[in-house]
Design brief:
110 residues, 5-stranded antiparallel beta sheet, 2 helices
């Protein structure tokens, strides 16, 4: 990969500068071709909470969400995109009741 990158650098020096390949911030990275990846950890206080993303996607249909329980994995978790900037996260305990749930989330899209 380094040899390939070096070859590209001599052919396209401006294109291969790192600052031209992506931008980033706390919890997100956006690549020059438009792909955005974001991540974070949240607590859903009552089993139903809105999560605000660090940076916006185009709209609610332009990204996918993956979540997991931060605890022992006993809670079921679901998500619904609200907009390009927010999604709603749900957590239910083993008794099928909305309950305080810690989640790790990961989104990818344009």
């Amino acid at each position: 990969i380094i040899i390939f990158y070096s070859s590209l650098f001599f052919l396209f020096p401006t294109l291969c500068k790192l600052e031209n390949l992506f931008t980033f911030g706390n919890g997100w990275v956006k690549f020059s071709f438009g792909l955005i990846i974001q991540w974070g950890v949240e607590t859903i206080p009552n089993g139903d909470n809105v999560v605000t993303l660090p940076t916006s996607y185009q709209n609610s249909n332009s990204y996918q969400i993956v979540v997991s329980d931060t605890g022992a994995g006993g809670h079921r978790i679901g998500t619904t995109p609200i907009s390009g900037k927010q999604f709603r996260a749900y957590g239910k305990n083993p008794n099928n009741e909305f309950a305080r749930t810690g989640v790790r989330w990961f989104t990818i899209g344009y």
